[in-house]
Amino acid sequence: MTHLVVKDLTAGYGDARVLHGVGLTVGEGEICAILGPNGAGKTTLLRALSGMIRARGTVTLGGADLTGHPPDTLARQGVAHVPEGRGTFMPLTVEENLRLGAYVRRRGPELEADLDRIHGYFPVLKTRLKQAAGSLSGGEQQMLAIGRALMSRPRLLLLDEPSLGLAPLVTRELFRIVQAINAEERTTVVVVEQNAHLALGIAQQAHVLETGRIVLSGTAEEIRADEQVAQSYLGYRV
Amino acid sequence: MAGFLQQLVQGLGAGAVYASLALALVLIYQFTGIVNFAQGELAMFSTYIAWQLTAAGLPFWPALVLTLAVSFAGGMLIERVIIRPVEGAPELTLVIVTVGLFIFVNAAAGWIWTFLIKDFPNPFPAGALEAGGISIGLSTLGVLAVVGVVMGLLYLLFRHTKIGLGMRAVAANPESARLVGIRVGWTLALGWGLASTVGAVSGVLVAPLLFLEPNMMGGVLIYAFAAATLGGFDSPVGAVVGGLIVGVAETLAGAYVGFIGSDLKVGVPLVIILGVLLLRPQGLFGRAVVERA
Ligand SMILES: Nc1ncnc2c1ncn2[C@@H]1O[C@H](COP(=O)(O)OP(=O)(O)OP(=O)(O)O)[C@@H](O)[C@H]1O
Ligand SMILES: [Mg+2]
Asked: Which of chain A's ends, N or C, has fewer CB atoms near its CB within 10 Å?
């Protein structure tokens, strides 16, 4: 069943158009990987999906029209965006960062249970709850950012380069957790990632974006098996 | 020794007033990065509203509550109407806008209430408390108490309510705040409303000590700038501590440093501002800005 439907999406900054009619669909509970070279417009695509920048075209999530709404409205509709650079609230504590993730929800036992759930995924956060989030390491901040996003109980989770600046071991662990979250919560995930190998490892389907257009789509296996793609976009040989 | 303590308490009383206006400055700076040069004038305007209400026969405290409510709404309105259109504009534009607001509010007050001085009722009884050879005016105690209550309420708001957490989130990272669902525009307006309210308290407290007239807050604003600079423009706690230090420093310098006396006292905040900017630009409690996102 398709969950996220994006049709003919165009977006950019000022007069500069970056996305030229992007279309894709993601099934409910699936992970979709967006690959592509630097400057292809991957971040811009996620920003358009979460309402951070204005976009034209249509975006629907579970049948509801999301097009053209500001991010605070989309957050209420179940879109959670972990931005490039993590978007940590640096001077606030780890716990406050997590609670802010649940800003659109009511307080209550469910919310407290979700906090525990996130400590289960990221035990290191639990030991740092009262610490300023800005004092966390890069990897810990990435975990915090994902934890924050999960606190909203999203229907759609947008992850922008979760591996950025992390050691390979930490990255692998992080992707394992994203996969576990996806499996346990049936959250639909769109992940942008330079590390194509890892992203394809957890995704059901993938799209290759180049200069604002999708130039190749397929299942993760198909994309991985495409030798030409492997060389020109993914930077490794099969 | 008793004389020194006497001066100290007096300084704290003056400092509490500076602290409240400094707090208003810091509130707005934290949310919008704007140094609101009109903060003192807004406080002055609020004070006139309180005066008008008491002149119309309302008892002081109800008049104050009403004034604070009007100031809150007025602050929000100013953000929505005047500040919103220039949000994100270069620093110089923002400075010009708040200076323009300063001139406008000042002129408006003069136009409505004239530039003749008015007596503002002192809400506190006249007597003094004698203890250990020093006497503390009840109005000094009153000022300290009112400012203390304001600080306490703000602390509760910021630390123990969801709205307060949202406000701190907006100050820390507006973009992320939007992504978690906070309505940032309204939060900024709320910040202006709060700042205007806190500023109004400082105006109402200082008016009985000076006379009410449109230029009443000019001097206080300079002290508040010194307080905010000393404490750190991004730290509410710093604003309060800075205000108290500035008040005490000014009073002690006036009393004990021979050549300063009461005429040169106003030089004290300027010396403090210069000294802080040279030695520790982020202030005592401020975070050093490494980069601004
Ligand atoms: N805030 C901005 N203002 C103007 N142009 C921008 C802005 N952000 C990105 N761009 C431009 O949009 C294009 C796409 O950028 P985007 O960040 O979406 O690429 P990306 O695929 O995420 O790249 P990377 O892999 O390096 O993160 C680039 O040409 C970039 O210069
Ligand atoms: Mg990017």
From this structure: N
Q: How far out from the chain centre does Cα A204 lie?
A: 15
What's the token pair of residue B175? 């973009």
Q: Is the ipTM of this complex over 0.90?
A: yes
> What confidence tens digit (pLDDT) does each residue in B188-212 have?
999 999 999 999 999 999 999 888 9
Which residues in B have their CB inside 8 Å of a CB on A?
162, 165-166, 168-169, 172-173, 175-184, 287
Q: Which residues of chain B have pLDDT under 70?
A: 1, 260-263, 288-293
Contacts of B181 in chain A (CB under 8 A): 71-72, 75-76, 103-104, 152
* In chain B, where the domains are located: 2-217
CB contact under 8 A, A83 and B176: yes
Write the CA distances from B15 to B195, B198, B292, integer angstroms: 18, 15, 31
Compute, in angstroms, the gap from residue B26 CA to the centroid of ligand 2.
34
Query: Cβ separation of B169 and A50 shorter than 8 Å?
Result: no
Q: Which residues of chain A have pLDDT under 50?
A: 237-238
Full set of structural domains in chain A with CATH: 1-78+156-165+188-238 (3.40.50.300), 84-153 (no CATH)
